[in-house]
Automatic annotation (TrEMBL):
This is Inositol polyphosphate-related phosphatase domain-containing protein. Its cofactor is Mg(2+). Belongs to the inositol polyphosphate 5-phosphatase family. Signal peptide: none annotated.
Length: 827
């Protein structure tokens, strides 16, 4: 019988290639299936369309796209409307008729797929931002879908689009629902918690890579990241438990806080489309750096020219970058740093003549990760990379460093343009993942301590406010490059004289960058070490010493064009390194390599001494476990939250005849917490004439039998309220058919009296434990077979616990309460 059921349920959309006379091969695969047990419906979903099916009859009910628009609606006659002559024909003809129905259903699907494909070809779906990536059924009977754009869409059980929400710009990867909460996992590693109406309760960074799956168990929501990491979060988060745990853990920060020290070398050089000698690179990057752990290199004017800029712009439009010249520089610097045995290059980014790259010492590599890059053109309408910036972001001991290599507008009088270039770079530099992605430290198997953010969440705000630049959320930012700021109100000869006398303080007073920073016009909140080296621009190539300044016709005034600026976590210079101020830096050396003559600019380098406060996860989890075990207030709260509301089910025995309806009442006696219920069918038995149930068969995944309708099969009963469930015998047509001499109906189910065991599963909103109530439902046949034809009458008999339909008042999705049932006399 199982084989026959499978054979009759099988639908192969690929076997049908013709729709309305036109060849139309199905190109939209079914990606997801969702079973709506309470309504006996099945959702099948592709990336851009949905189909809604009747789970019992396999009838295609509706096909619609991600906007909720019906692509192709097919009206089919129900099974009982088929003519007797058609159904009473041979078994082969009946099977052909059944597959004829499926062919029409299949054609409808393919027609919708073709419409979706044509719309996508016309750009109706943009960059597939509306692709469905996940879907879930909630306890109130609503269906939620998540899109590539981060859009969350709520649907009712009939496939009508109710409302949408946009709380995060990255792709939804998975859902998990428990009680009145919906957990959403994103490609950014962020987890959000919503209630059933879509209100954002809280969010935090759960992992440093995409959250690809979530499941519930033992009082926790477990999240699985793309890199294989698993973390558990208390199902009460966000909630009152978090603030208590946060306070308790804060008092033990000194126990699990560790301070790490890293030295960072940042170097900038405008190479003027030239090539450097090995000796020049040694002088710039390899001398006196034996204890440096991270080296960041920023180059400008690696290559220039109209052809190079045009090719770079074309590459950027299709997501490509880099050049042979850029690779030459990366290889040469890698050889200088003994790449492979001493250092490892972890990332790089090129935009036309701009190039940034980072090398990390091998013994530090395990603590560095999540490297991301970005580029912002500033030249020719903010589209060409002759001026602009390239950035690289990385995580070091769970703290974020952003490194930005810039080349701003040239010429003495272009101060405002340079300021505008910085402002454009700072505001628009966007990495492929949120800037806050790794700032939060997970609490292991715990609540979302210290990581909550939302309209009503308590704790540190770990989410960048809407419209805030991503660079503003990093723990440390280093800007390096050819900023092109010059010296004001000084002649070439005067500048040369002051330089020869090393009177740099007097020259610094005429430095445009210093003036603009003091006025708050550029590099706001950033600092620079005291300049003790001569201006680095402009020199004659291959001429050593201070005599090498430009002596040509233009005699450009020397200037400190090449600079390195920074900011760390400190709000004041006196702040000490702690979890509240996790990254504190100081300058060890800030110097120019005046002996290098390969370009008209001198290379500059700055060595930072960086202290980083981090959390020792193993110690912190140990402290958290001790708090959970020893804190009496927390233990009482957990015990109270895990209680299952006391409920009473009105009966444990129901007898139904043809089309009878009985009301099953669930009373929630708890005065504080909601009771969540779900009704499943444990198994079905046939009943002999002596009343004994025999031939028990577990229903498994088949749900309720076709003759039984339970509405709603899941829902919520509010405190001190009564919910009702309609248990109805659903008449369906049968056909007398003989198999081995025994009368059978068309579905090969005998027509003896039937008995099922319904299990009402009750639980609370914050516990995975359940309490089960079993209800025996027996259906007594009034005749052995039922031939097709008009109903003799519409009268309803009342027997046992059956009610007239006029006496039935059903619940809606979640909170329906029939107050007068408390005083109603039960039959």
């Amino acid at each position: 019988m199982a084989a026959l059921l499978v054979e009759r349920s099988y639908i192969d959309l690929r076997s049908q290639l013709t729709v309305n006379g036109f060849s139309d091969v199905v190109t939209s695969d079914v990606k997801y299936l969702l079973s709506d047990n309470s309504r006996a419906k099945v959702w099948s979903a592709g990336y851009l369309s949905f189909a809604l099916w009747d789970a019992q009859t396999r009838e295609l009910l509706k096909v619609f796209n991600t906007d909720g628009q019906i692509e192709n609606r097919v009206e089919f006659s129900p099974l009982q409307d088929f003519s007797l002559e058609h159904i009473s024909s041979s078994k082969k003809e009946k099977m052909q008729g059944s597959f004829g129905f499926f062919q029409r259903s299949c054609n409808a699907i393919m027609g919708a797929a073709g419409a979706v494909r044509r719309a996508a070809a016309k750009g109706a779906f943009g960059d597939d931002n509306r692709r469905t990536e996940a879907l879930v059924l909630t306890v109130d009977g609503m269906i939620w879908t998540g899109c590539t754009s981060g859009l969350l869409v709520q649907w009712d059980g009939s496939g009508n689009r109710i409302q949408e929400f946009q709380y995060h710009p990255f792709a939804v990867q998975c859902f998990c629902t428990f009680g009145q909460r919906i957990w959403v996992g994103y490609a950014s590693g962020t987890v959000q918690v919503l209630n059933l109406v879509g209100y954002l309760l809280g969010e935090w960074v759960a992992h440093s890579s995409p959250v690809i799956e979530m499941t519930v168990g033992a009082g926790y929501i477990f999240t699985l990241a793309n890199h294989g990491g698993i973390r558990g979060w208390n199902i009460t988060s966000p909630g009152p438990l978090d603030s208590i745990l946060r306070s308790e853990l804060a008092g033990k920060e000194f126990v699990y806080t560790r301070t790490e020290n890293v030295k960072v070398l940042a170097g900038t050089w405008n190479v003027g489309q030239g090539r450097a000698s090995h000796e020049s690179l040694i002088s710039w990057l390899h001398s006196d750096v034996s204890d440096v752990g991270i080296i960041v290199v920023g180059l400008q004017e690696v290559e220039m020219g109209a052809g190079v800029l045009a090719l770079s712009a074309a590459k950027e439009t299709v997501g490509l970058e880099g050049s042979s010249v850029g690779h030459w520089w990366l290889d040469m610097i890698g050889k200088t740093l003994d790449e492979g045995s001493t250092f490892e290059r972890v990332g790089s980014r090129q935009l036309a003549g701009l190039l940034i790259a980072v090398w990390v010492r091998n013994n530090l590599r395990v603590h560095v990760g999540d490297v991301d890059v970005a580029a912002v053109p500033c030249g020719f309408g903010r589209a060409i990379g002759n001026k602009g910036a390239v950035g690289l972001r990385l995580r070091v001991y769970d703290r974020i460093m952003c490194l930005v290599n810039c080349h701003f507008a040239a010429h003495l009088e272009a101060v405002n343009r340079r300021n505008a270039d910085f402002d454009h770079v700072y505001r628009t530099m966007t990495f492929s993942r949120p800037t806050n992605l790794f700032n939060a430290t997970a609490a292991g198997s715990s609540s979302a301590v210290q990581m909550l953010c939302g309209p009503n969440a308590i704790g540190a705000n770990t989410r960048t406010a809407e419209g805030m630049p991503e660079l503003s959320d990093a723990d440390m930012v280093i800007f390096l490059g050819d900023f092109n700021y010059r010296l004001d109100d000084i002649s070439y000869d005067e500048a040369r004289d002051f330089i020869s006398q090393r009177c740099f303080e007097w020259l610094r007073e005429r430095d445009q960058l210093r003036t603009e920073m003091e006025a708050g016009n550029v590099f706001q909140g950033m600092r620079e070490a005291v300049i003790t080296f001569p201006p680095t621009y402009k020199f004659e190539r291959h001429q050593g010493g201070l005599a090498g300044y430009d002596s040509g016709e233009k005699k450009r005034i020397p200037a400190w064009c090449d600079r390195i600026l920074y900011r760390d976590s400190r709000s004041t210079l006196l702040s000490e390194c702690s979890l509240e101020c996790p990254l504190v830096s100081s300058i060890l050396r800030y110097e120019a390599c005046m002996d290098v003559t390969d370009s008209d600019h001198k290379p500059v380098r700055c060595i930072f001494n960086v202290d980083i406060a981090r959390v020792d996860e193993s110690i912190r989890r140990q402290e958290l476990g001790e708090i959970l075990e020893s804190n009496e207030k927390i233990k009482r709260m957990l015990k109270e939250l895990c209680k299952i509301p006391e409920t009473i089910v009105s009966t444990n025995n129901i007898i139904l005849q043809n089309q009878d309806t009985s009301i099953l009442r669930i009373t929630n006696k708890c005065g504080e917490n909601e009771a969540f219920f779900e009704v499943i069918c444990e198994g079905q038995s046939s009943v002999e004439e002596d009343g004994q149930a025999i031939d028990h068969r577990p229903r498994g995944s088949f749900g309720f039998p076709r003759w039984l309708e339970v509405t709603p099969a899941a829902g919520i009963v509010r405190p001190n309220h009564i919910g009702e469930i309609s248990v109805h015998h659903e008449e369906f047509q049968t056909l007398e058919e003989f198999v081995d001499g025994v009368p059978q109906n068309w579905w090969c189910e005998d027509n003896r009296d039937k008995e099922v065991i319904l299990v009402v599963i009750v639980r609370g909103s914050n516990t995975t434990e359940t309490k089960n109530h079993r209800v025996r439902v027996r259906h007594c046949f009034t005749s052995k077979t039922k031939r097709f034809g008009p109903e003799p009458n519409n009268s309803r008999q009342i027997q046992g616990t059956a009610l007239l339909r006029s006496d039935v008042q059903r619940l809606s999705s979640s909170y329906d309460v029939v107050a007068h049932l408390q005083n109603m006399h039960s039959p």
